[in-house]
Amino acid sequence: MPKRNGRHPEKALTAVAVRSAKPGRHADGNGLYLEVDPSGAKRWLLRLMIQGKRRDIGLGSASLVSLAEARETAATMRKAARAGGDPLAERRAERRVVPTFAEAARSCHEEHKGSWKNGKHADQWLNTLEAHVFPTLGAVTVDKIGTPEVRDVLLPIWLEKHETARRVRQRIGTVLDWATAKGLREGDNPVRGVTKGLPKPKGQRGHFAALPYADVPAFLARLRETLKAGPMVKLLFEFVVLTAVRSGEARGARWNEFDLDAKLWTIPADRMKAGKPHVVPLAPRALALLKAAGELRTSDDPSALVFPGERLGKAMSDMALTMLLRRMEVDATAHGFRSSFRDWCAEATNFPREVAEAALAHALESKVEAAYRRSDLLEKRRKMMEAWARYCEATAGKVVPLAKARRPQG
C-alpha cells in the first residue's frame, strides 16, 4: 500500500470501492479497515485502544456486513472504549452460552473426578444435587442464581436433614465457584451468606459456626493485616487454623513440646480431649509462625508458653480469639475452623477419611479402624497438613466477604 500523507482518512471507502477492492488492507478511517485476501474474501477489522492496549476486532465478512453496518458497529465500540469499557469482552459475553445449573454441576463433577476419594463419594456428590437441587434450580442458568434461590432450595431440608442440607449447600457453592472461574457468572458466591436467612437448627449441640473452606485463605489474609489485635494473638490464631487443633491445645502449647528439627509437635495426653498424646506434623508456614512467636519470647524456660497471654505465666484466653473474630466482623468461632479443614479434606482432596480424622484427633469409631490406624498415619498426615497450608496460602491475597456455615464438631 502507498504511504499516506496528512490526516488519516475518514469514511474513505464507498460501497463501490468495497465491491472492487483488491487484495490488501484498505482504511476507511478511525481504525476501521477492509481486509481482502488473495482469494478475494473480504472482512472488516477494527483497530482500537482498549484500556491502554491495542486490540484488533473482527466485525464480520463484508459479504454479510455492509459498509454502513461496519461503521455503525465501529462507532459503538469506539465510544465504549473511550468510556473505559472493554467492547471486546462485552462482545464475548454476548456470544457466551451460559449453562444451566444441572449442566454446570455435571461438568464440574466431571472435571474434578480425579480428586474424589472413591467412586462412592463421587456418586454421592452428584446424587445429592440431583435429588435436592436439580428439581428447582436444574434448569436455571448459573448466572441467574442468587442467595434467594439457594435459600429456597435449602429451606425444606435445613431442619429435618440438616447434615444433608449442609453438604448440599457446600456443593452448590462449589458449582457456582466453578462457574465463576469459567467466566460464566459474576459477583460473590450466594452460598456464603445464605445461612443468615435460614432458621437456626434446634436441639443440636456441639455445633460451631465455621467458614466455608473457600473463605479461609481470605480470612488469613485479613488476619495478618488487621490492626484489631496484637501480633501474638494473630500468630496463635493462624497457628490454630493451620494445625487444625482445638484452640485450647494451641493456647496451652509449651516450647518443650516441639521438635523443630523433626517438624513435630507432641501434645501430651493431659491436654487432649481423648486423654491420649497427639502428634501434629508441622508445615513450613506453621514453623514460620513458631519462629515469629520465638522472636517475641521473653523467657528461656523450656516449659514456657509459646503463645502467652498478657498476664505473666498465664495462657491466652479463648475469649481473646473470640473478640478478634468479633472485631473483624467474622461470624465464626475458632473451633469452627476445624470444620473448615474437615470439609476441605472431604470436598477438595483425595486424602482418605481416616487420615483427616486422625489429624483432628477424633475418637476411633471401631476396633477395626483402631487397628488400621495404629501407625497414626503420620507421614500421610504430614502431606495433608502441608497441602492444607499451601491451600491457605495460595489465594491468601484475595480478600473476599466472609460468611458462616455450621457443622457438628467434636
UniProtKB/TrEMBL annotation:
CDD domains xref list: INT_P4_C
The keyword DNA-binding appears for this protein: yes
A molecular-function term among this protein's GO annotations: DNA binding
Keywords for the protein's UniProt record, in alphabetical order: DNA integration, DNA recombination, DNA-binding
A Pfam family of this chain: Phage_integrase
Domain Tyr recombinase positions: 206-385
Signal peptide stretch: none
Residue intervals of the Core-binding (CB) domain: 99-180
Similarity comment: Belongs to the 'phage' integrase family.
Name of the protein in question: Integrase arm-type DNA-binding domain-containing protein
Natural source organism: Azospirillum oleiclasticum
